[in-house]
Every structure is written in structure tokens, then in C-alpha cells.
Amino acid sequence: MLLIKNGRVLDPATGEDSTQDVLLAGDRIEKIAAGISAPDAEVFDAKGLIVAPGFIDLHCHLREPGQEMSETIETGTRSAARGGFTAVCCMPNTQPVNDNASITRGIVERALKVGGVRVWPIGAASVGSKGEALAEIAAMKNAGIVAVSDDGKPVATARLMRQVMDYCSTLDLPVIDHCEDPSLFAGGVMREGPRSVRLGLKGIPAQSESICAGRDVELAGLTRARLHIAHMSTTGALEYVRYAKKNGLKVTCEVTPHHFTLTDEDVKYDTNYKMNPPLASGADRDALIAGLVDGTVDAIATDHAPHHPASKDVEFDRAPFGITGFETALALGLTELVHTGKMKLMRLVELFTTGPARVLGMERKIATGQVADLTIFSAKQQWTYHVADSPSKSRNTPFDGRAFSGVAAATIVAGRIIGKQ
Amino acid sequence: MLQRLEHLLGTEDLTREQISFILDQAAPFQEFQKHPLKKLATLRGKTVALAFFENSTRTRISFATAAARLGADTMNLQAESSSVKKGESLLDTIRTLEAMRPDGLVIRHSSSGASQLIADRLGMPVVNAGDGTHEHPTQALLDALTIRDRQGKLDGLNLTILGDILHSRVARSNIFLLSKFGARITLCGPSMWVPRELESLAPNVRRVSRIEDALAGADAIIVLRVQTERLHEPAIAAEEYILGYQLTQSRLKLANPEALVLHPGPMIRGLEIDPAVADGPQSCVLDQVTNGLAIRMALLYHLVGGAAVETPAPKDQKKDSPKD
Q1: Is the CB of residue B191 less than 8 Å away from at least one CB of chain A?
Q2: Residue in A closest to B195 by C-alpha
Q3: Which of A27, A329, B189, B276 is 20 to 30 A off residue A298, Cα-Cα?
Q4: Both B122 and B194 in a single domain?
């Protein structure tokens, strides 16, 4: 038994926002009330802290199997726990690609063995994510996938996307798309704009993303499938999602912390500023924040993409895309969105909890009988991020040395504290 | 205050004073090129590493000759003969060169920012001899020297640049440099090579679609090479380019009568430039090559000469604060 004393319980599912004690028994929530007495329970003093439903990250790369030099399920989930995440969804672009049930089972079993954060795999939409034939989606669903995606690239053609959507709607699985038009992307390395022109780096127009998002929204209308747009970075794509929601389509989307924090004007010849989608213009960044605030955006997702230092310590145009993100996501949300007065704390918590849960068709709530997955955090503690202390195997972040207000204090999965600061 | 240069990575971050200083330092080296015996002992015992990861003939020979005429030895690395092809990273290749203890490094590389990456890691002066589509600062300096010599001043120039501006490191370095001297810069070329974002590079930069309008009132014209081998991009037919943008004699008449014609080379006669213009009295093409030697000698003297070289501070300005 674990008794969380005097925390400010904040639950977007019920609108609850008051100081309470929360008693956990086994892997369930036993009781929520003021002044609970449980002499046998271990006590966690949450005075001054916020007790929220467990955070879910819809988008990360754990690199296992196949790229263990950059990350493993063990190191990645330890990093996730430190950031306050109780569950993470890992993308299938491992080596080999997670496009069949045996790989899915391997990931699930490995995650159970290293204990801690729940790992919910996302299966490939097509065999090898090659964009040709459908992967074994139903078998993967039985093995534990929560969605499908060919992340890293878009589902190759409109025809294949239609098939994937049709098939996944019968399986009631969301289809997550990395929206990009490869012919417009054409070897670009950052967002096309004044900064790319100044640096002489090949630009990727914003329309590379929005054209593909438009295609997908049209197909969601055709198939009535659940579509989720990954790491959205442009006003154009956001407008397609607004249109879809207005028309009752089952379309959701996520935004990463780096896309609501940085812009293309921050890009320098430092490969920690190279990610895909690339950092957006200031106007797009502001539109994304507006979407996060007004409910168009459903979730904040990290797109934690570890890369071994040797692969990032190269010329900008040769480096792989992506940065790590678990440990800075909550702090960026608090510092950039809440403390700036742009967003209510409750809404931020929603974007990390009930928002992503809804995308996956799950419930997430602090109530008696519910699974005891909780994230306890300080909304105001001052700290500085030092990537050298990260449990991740990789160091590719632009936020090393950045000062933040607010940090995860404890990550509780199935009634057990797995990460504590 | 005249900041002593540690590296020369681009013209964007140079001050007007630093640029004038380099041009002034180059003047004696211009004279020197006319001597019958072209060898100084200034950099005797020093070694300059020339790391060319991209094909180059004229720039490499120019740097090698500049080093030789200052008495320095050179170490040559060319992409073809290097371990780059075997998969070695740029930093490892450069560290190998560094272990042979050169006193300065000149780098050309196809990646924008490559010279910055190297300069951040090495404890020696780095000269950018062209990085991707970013900057080519020695070219802009030699262009400025050429213009200043011919016109007697560099200030308030009406400059027109013709061609593929987007992919041109020469154009960027020239725009950054000349705008510090109040140049009004007109860019002209097929519009996919002249995006509107270029106007944000410096004050007083504008785009003009018709070459006739772009040339009107120009004091100097930089004609860029048309690179037919542009990766990832649909080509434009040579005939179309000639029709719209070739600098012909009749078009040149629209510019100021004394307007200078510059070309960074290699030049494709009959494509971007009419041979009669290339060989005409307004052409500075061969002066540019000779001035390139003078600029590169001045830079190597300044950067590689290191502590032995006294940096004169302008009279009316404060002395440099010590750097560590």
C-alpha cells in the first residue's frame, strides 16, 4: 500500500482540483479523500506537489531491437520514468521493423522484464514500412500494439493509406501518420524560410506536411477510420485537423515540446536542432500553441529520438533527424505554456494524460478501482537540465543547460514508485 | 575596435573595419605579384593544411600558391584520395591532419557549416574556402578588392547579381560583405533560384524579375556560374536561361557605362555570359584571379603568421582587449 499525502489532485477526466490523500492498494487506486489514515502504508509526502493521472507519451523511439547503441527499452524507459511518463508508445522503425507479432511480443516481454514504465508498441502499417503490402496488423494487435504507423515516413500512397485505414477501422486501431510529401521534402534538412536561406541549408516547405495531412483527412472522411497526425508542425496541417473535427471525423493530432518551444530562427550548425518535421516558423509555432490551448491538438508527444553521439557529431546535412525528449517535455510545457500564462495547468495535464488516452481509446482517471498509474510533479521547482546525468544512452538534445520551472517528482506505475527525484 | 581574426568562416560576422583592414593588408601583396622573384620567407617553417573535400581547381591552386609565395609548406588532402570514401567522419579526418601539426587549415566542403564544425573543435586558424551553399568569404574579399581598385571606393555601390542566387555561396558572401558598405543589391535570375527570403539577408536587397530592369544603373555586376548539376531539382533548359538571363553586350549597355563585370569562375562562355562581355574592357575576370592570390596571402599572413604578426589598430580606435 502506498499513501500519497496532501497532494493537489488534478484530474482532467473529472475536473477535480483539490488537496487530497490518495491511497493505492496493489495496482489499483483504493481511496481518494482528505486525511486518510493507513498505518501499514508507505507514505509519500506530496505537499506542494501535483498528483495527476499517469502521463502517456504517444510517440517515442526506443531503438530496440537493432539500434541498441543509441537506446534500449531499459535505458529509454528509465529516461521516460524520470520525465514522469507512466506509459510510452514506441514507434516500429526498429531493426527489424516491428511489422509482425513476434517482434511485438519481443518488445512487450522485454519491457515487462526491465520493469517500470509501460511500453505500448505501435506496429508498422506496411511490411517493413516499405509502403507496399499491409503488415500483419491483426496479429500484432493480439500481441499488444495500440496503433499502426510507418513513422519516419508517410504511408506511401493514398491507395495504401486507404487500405490501412479501412482495415484498421475494422480492428478499431488508430492509424498514425508522419505527414510528409517526399517529392517536396527532397533532401531538405530544415524548414524552408529566411533562416534556411541564410544558412545555406536545404529547406523543406511547410506544404510538405500539410499536403499529406490534407490527403489523410480526405481519406479519413472516406473510410471513417481513426486518424492521428503525428508531430504536427504547420498551420496548414492544423487547419485540416480543425476542419476534420468540425465535420465529425475521428481525427486527432499531437505536437512535440520542441515544436511549441523553438522555431527555425533557433537553428544553427548544431545537429541537435535537426529534427523531422523541422522546427517551424514563428507564426506556425504560435498557431500550434493556439491549437494546444483551444483543444484542436489532443496530446503533447515527445518524439524522443535518441541517436548515438557519433552519428550526430557530423556535418548538419549528414546527421540523422531527431532529438531526445522524455526528460524535458513536462518542464517545457510548464515553463513555455503554463508559466507564460498561455495555458491553464489543468489543460497541460490533459495534454499529457486524458488527451493521449482518448487518442488510444483508453480511459485515464483518478478514481477508486482505476489502475494506479500516477505522475506526481512540482509545477514550480527551479532546476537546470544536465543531459550528462540522463539515463538515456544518447545525448542529442538542444536543451542541455536550460533552466526550467517545474519537474516530475515521482512516477507511479501499478501502485509502485518507479522513478523519483 | 578591431577584433583580431581567429578564423575566417564567413563575411556575415566580419565588421566593416575588419574587411577594410584585410583589403589594406592585401595591397602590398598585389604589388608583390609583379615581382620577378615571387617568394617571401614570412611563413617559413609554417605549414598550411589544404583540405578540399569537394572538387576545386582554381581555389585550391590559389591557396597553395599563396602559401608557397609566403614561404609556407602545404599539406594537401583531396576527397578522391582521402579516407572519406572509406567512411571516415569529417572530424576524424581533420583530427588526423591536426595530429601532423599544421599551423592553419583551409577547408572546402560540400556541407554548409562544415568549416564552423571544424573551427569549433580545432585549436588552429580555419579558413573557409567554400562550405556548401553557405559562404565563400575569400571570393567576396577578392571581389571587393577588385571593385575598390577599379572604382576607387567600395561605398554606396549599386550591385547586381545574376543567376542561381539560392545555391550560391559566392552570392551570400558578397551580399553580406558589400551591404556593410551601404551597397544597394539587386538579385535577378529564374525565380526558383531567387526566393523572396533572400531579401532578408541584408538591408537594401531586392529582387527584380527582368534582367533589363536589374541592370539599369548597376555599378558592378556579378555573373554567377549556372550549375547544371543541381541535385534534387528539376533542370531548366540552357536555351531558356540564355534567353532570359545571359549577360549580353546589348544588355550590359543598360548598366552604368563604367560598370564592372565580375565572375567567380569557372565561367561557361555562351551560357551565363556572352564571350564578348567576358573578354570586354569592363570584365574583371582575370584581375579577380590575381587579386585572389593577394587576398589569400594577406589572410594567411594574418591568421597563420600568428603572434609574429603585429596587428595595427586604427589610430582613432581603442586597442584590442586581450583574448584568451
Answers
A1: no
A2: A197
A3: A27
A4: no
Terminal alpha carbon distance of chain B: 17
Cβ-proximal residues to B153 (8 Å cutoff; 6+ apart), any chain: none
Whether B172 and chain A come into contact, CB under 8 Å, resolves to yes
Burial of residue B24 (number of CB atoms within 10 Å: 0-12, 13-18, 19+): middle
Of B117, B166, B195, the CB nearest to A315: B117
Per-residue pLDDT tens digits for B251-267: 999 999 999 999 999 99
Residue B83 pLDDT grade (very low, low, confident, very high; cuts 50, 70, 90): low
Q: Which helix (H) or strand (E) holds A382?
A: strand A374-384
The model's pLDDT over A347-362, given as tens digits with 9 standing for 90+, comes to: 999 999 999 999 999 9
Q: Which residue of A has its CA nearest to B130?
A: A200
* Alpha carbon distance A289, A292 (integer Å): 5
The span from the CA of B96 to the CA of B152, in Å, is 45
In this structure, the answer to whether residues B273 and B149 fall within a common structural domain is yes
A316 contact B CB<8A:
yes
DSSP string over B50-93: EEE-S--SHHHHHHHHHHHHTT-EEEEEEGGGSGGGGT--HHHH
Nearest CB to B134 within list A186, A199, A310:
A199
- Dist CA A415 CA A12 (whole Å): 20
Residue B11 falls inside a structural domain: no
Structural domain contains residue B271: yes
The number of folded domains in chain B is 2
Q: Which helix (H) or strand (E) holds B48?
A: strand B47-52
Give the active site residues of B: 58-59, 86, 108, 136
Do B293 and B266 belong together in one domain? Answer: no
Cα–Cα distance, A233 to A210 (Å, whole number): 9
Strands A16-25 and A2-11: antiparallel
Residue B103: helix, strand or coil by DSSP?
coil
Using an 8 Å CB-CB cutoff, list chain A residues near B197.
Answer: 192-194, 196-198
User: How many degrees, rounded to 5, is the angle at CA B156 between CA B152 and CA B157?
Assistant: 70
pLDDT tens-digit readout, A8-49: 999 999 999 999 999 999 999 999 999 999 999 999 999 999
Say what the pLDDT of residue B313 is. 44
Q: Which residues of A touch B114 (CB under 8 A)?
A: 315
Whether the pLDDT of residue A269 is over 60: the answer is yes
Closest residue of chain B to A195, computed from CA coordinates: B197
List chain A residues with CB under 8 Å of B191: none
Q: Is B324 on the interface with A (CB under 8 A)?
A: no
Q: With contact defined as beta carbons under 8 Å apart, do A249 and A200 qualify?
A: no
Contact B90 A315 (CB under 8 A): yes
Can you give the pLDDT at residue A260?
98
Q: Which domain holds residue B292?
A: 16-136+288-308
Q: Which CATH superfamily, name and number, covers A54-359? A: Metal-dependent hydrolases (3.20.20.140)
Q: Is residue A389 less than 8 Å (CB to CB) from chain B? A: no
Sequence spans of domains, chain A: 2-50+370-381+403-420, 54-359
